[in-house]
Structure formats: structure tokens, C-alpha cells
Amino acid sequence: SFVLLNNQITTRENVKIDMEDRGYNFGDGIYEVIPIYDSKTFSMDEHLQRFEESAAKIEIKLPYDKSLLKRLLNDLKEKNNITNGIIYIQMTRGVSPRAHLYERNVEGLITGFCREMPFPVEQKHSGINVFLTADIRWLRCDIKTINLLGNTMVKRKATDENCHEAIMHRDGTLTEGSSSNLFIVKDKILYTHPATNLILNGITRQKVIKLANENDLTVVEETFTLKQLREADEAFITSTTQEITPITSVFGDIQANFTVGPITKALQQFFKECVEKEAI
Ligand code: PMP
Q1: Which secondary-structure segment (H or E) carries 69?
Q2: Hey, which of 130, 149, 211, 240 would you mutate to test ligand 1's pocket, going by the most ligand atoms within 8 Å of its Cβ?
Q3: Does the N-terminal or the C-terminal CB of the chain have fewer CB atoms within 10 Å?
């Protein structure tokens, strides 16, 4: 398969990463996942914007500008002939003798690949179980870093408990999922954690908020508690790969059950129409 290495499209066999790459030693890097629908990308500009913002937050310099990156990613998608799937791109701080201290704004090392990935049709229709547990992550969850140990540990735990995703809380305040954002619906009003340092501001989250507002639904970007989750009418997660996936059962720190409700279904429909209209 074809992959991206810095500004070159090449084959995977040609990529050799040094054992003192800071991404490998420290998880010192950032990434993005961009969806492909029907051979077209969706929300590429928003993802590249966030990529640039994540890079700025940890003081890594993009080795070239976003417009070239966009061209390379489109080439990569076409060379690999992807119909429905994702583009994964990451940038690490590159190679230096292992030591904590980094030099500011050195040019990062970029790698990327594409893969076919079916979107979760059945889960979107029937909903998923989620496991609710403590948010054990650091306090800069707004950065889309490859350093994901907290996320992977809660995901492992959720899967052990027969749940599809972990959702997390800090002292009883819901934050987000291990790789998704979380919404609840109560009396026709949507609630989701505000875009602070405690969550990743998902591109899908932002789309859902926009689509809700355009369709006269109220979205409150305020924190909500375990009690509010338990008493909600509907709950769902959002992400690039999960789109809008309803939650039907919560296990773990509280138990709750939901049906796949009318607002979740309406948003799924708005999202589908949006993808059909905006994918390019
Ligand atoms: N939160 C976390 C922690 C994530 O890892 C992700 C997906 N990578 C999201 C939220 C959802 O973001 P997006 O909608 O941009 O995929």
C-alpha cells in the first residue's frame, strides 16, 4: 500500500522510523483521522485546522503548509483507491537523543496511511453498551496527541466488560468517551461537555452542534453529572469513525438504559444529508 512520509508518497516498506524518534520514546506527537465516503473526504479542512492547532499547542512546526498537506492526502487516498474508510496522519517531534527537554518549533516528522473501514451500520441503528469509569487522563485532553495510554486503558476495561466504548467522568462530571464525545438529551435539549482542556473538541461534535442549531434544537455546552446521565431521555457518542452512535446501556459507575430516541435519529439523518452534500 501507499503511505505518506514527510512530503513523499511512497510504499510502506520504504518507511523506517528511528528508535529515538520522540513519538516512539515519549508519545511526543499529534494525529488526525479524516473520513472517506464514496471516495471523497469529509471535513478535511476542519481536521487539518485542528492538526495545525494541536501542533502549535505542543510547539512542533509543520514542515510544509496545509494546502500541500491536503494535496498529498488526496493523492494518498486516490493512489490507494479507498472507497469508504479513513486517512490517518500523524506528526512527531522527530529524532533526537533521548532526553525530556525538547527544542521548540523544530520541523515534525509526518507519516500517514489510508485504509478501508466500514462505518458501523448496525451499531448506529441498534445502539451500543458503554462502560462508565473515572477519567484517568491528563489535563490537556484538548490536544489530539498520540499519547493515548489513559484512553487505551479505559477502552480495554470497557471491552472486558462487554462494552463497545468507555465513557468517563471526573468526580461525577461526564467528560467524553475514550475516542468519542458524549451527548445526552433531556426534554428535547442536548447537553455536551464544553470545549475546554478536559475534552477533545471533536469535529463530529462540532458538526452535530451546528446541525442541531440549524434545525431548531437547543444545545447546551455545559457540564452534566452522573445523575443527569441516569435521568436522560437519550444518549449518544460522536466521532469520525462512529459518526452518531446511540447508547442503549450504561454499565460501571452507574447503570442506565436508553432507547434509540427521536432526536438521535433525526441528527443521524441530518448528518447523513450533510455528508452527501459536503464530501468532496
Ligand atoms: N474525543 C476523543 C478522546 C477522541 O479520541 C476522538 C476521536 N479521535 C473524539 C473525541 C472525536 O473526535 P472527532 O469527531 O474529531 O473524530
Answers
A1: helix 66-79
A2: 240
A3: C
Which atom belonging to ligand 1 lies closest to the Cα atom of 181? 10
Q: CA 18 to CA 199: how far, in whole Å?
A: 31
Position 171 scores a pLDDT of 98
Which of 180, 197, 237 maximizes ligand 1 atoms within 8 Å of its Cβ, making it the mutation to test the pocket? Answer: 180
The rounded mean pLDDT for the chain is: 98
Q: How far is the CA of 59 from the centre of ligand 1 (A)?
A: 21
Categorise residue 118: left if φ over 0, alpha if ψ from -120 to 50, beta otherwise: beta
Domains of the chain: 2-116 (3.30.470.10), 122-278 (3.20.10.10)
Q: Which are the contacts of 39, defined by CB distance < 8 A and separation ≥ 6?
A: 77, 82, 83
CB 66 within 8 A of CB 91: no
* Positions in the chain whose pLDDT score sits under 50: none
What is the structure's pLDDT at 147? 98
